[in-house]
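Components:
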Amino acid sequence: MSAIKLGIVGVGKIATDQHLPAIAANGDFQLLASASRNATVPGLPGFTSIDEMLAQQPDIEAVALCMPPQHRYQAARAALLAGKHVFMEKPPGATLSEVEDLDQLAQSRGVTLFASWHSRHAPAVQVIKAFLAKHAPRQVHVIWKEDVRHWHPGQEWIWEAGGLGVFDPGINALSIVTEILPTAMFLKSGVLEFPANRDAPIAADLRFTDANGLDVHAEFDWRQTGKQSWDIIITTEAGVLRMADGGAKLWLDDVAQELGDEGEYPSLYRHFAALVQNGKSDVDLSPLRHVADAFMLGKRKAVEDFHS
Ligand code: NAP
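Structure:
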């Protein structure tokens, strides 16, 4: 099959750090152009809007959307209406309803919609899922604590409504938990800490359960300096699993487990190519639904102003 001709939209940190190298290394894709208001991809035609890119580069068959989630719907709709396959960065949108609308549009147009969750492609995730299918989890503890000033310098959109605040990284943990658990979980209670001068939370403490009474405790915090934590600890009857570094490392009862070495973004693009080639979509909204539930059920606590 010939390479899928691709356009990339929103050339910022993640597009530059991860998408461009993963696309360049994957023979199933050929990057034709970019659309971004202030940035271009060296050596390729650059446009300032997706509409202009699609009009000027009609050979484009698929787009990767890497802008902030509040601005993804219009771009995705334009691409789907033009008959293009769409790869969306996480989180797939600002609301559940708009992503469902896109899912239906993709189905009606017969094109692929991929709502990606990069953390699900970390090497430990499928290993843990297979283990938990045999040994039911008894307790899950998620610790996702990082320094927002280090990882999101100058990004104002994450503090605006729809930017999700600490759920921007926290949703990565939720994407892993929803992938590995054998049963569906749901929120029981939560506390969301909002800086008084911001529209998005800087920390969240969430308690989930499932039909069998499983205890899932998630702690998200953006004020962590020093050691950063992207860990999940799962107690089972067959031992304790400790996942660290967002899924790059795994121990069972302190014995390091051997993991594959494919990176998250190479794996994401391999999956996207297979979806396009097989005429399928992949739109799982469960991580975003848990975040929406947290905003709906969680108590709101005002904390000190945040200045970057
Ligand atoms: P970013 O550095 O701010 O880049 C996003 C780009 O989107 C901007 O550079 C901007 O480029 C474009 N954009 C279009 N409309 C925009 C608007 N109204 N406001 C701001 N930017 C706009 O953000 P990012 O870190 O790459 O994150 C983008 C998406 O990727 C988010 O959904 C995020 O959750 C996800 N993600 C990020 C990371 C990470 O480590 N940073 C990791 C995984 C996933 P122009 O100004 O040129 O239009």
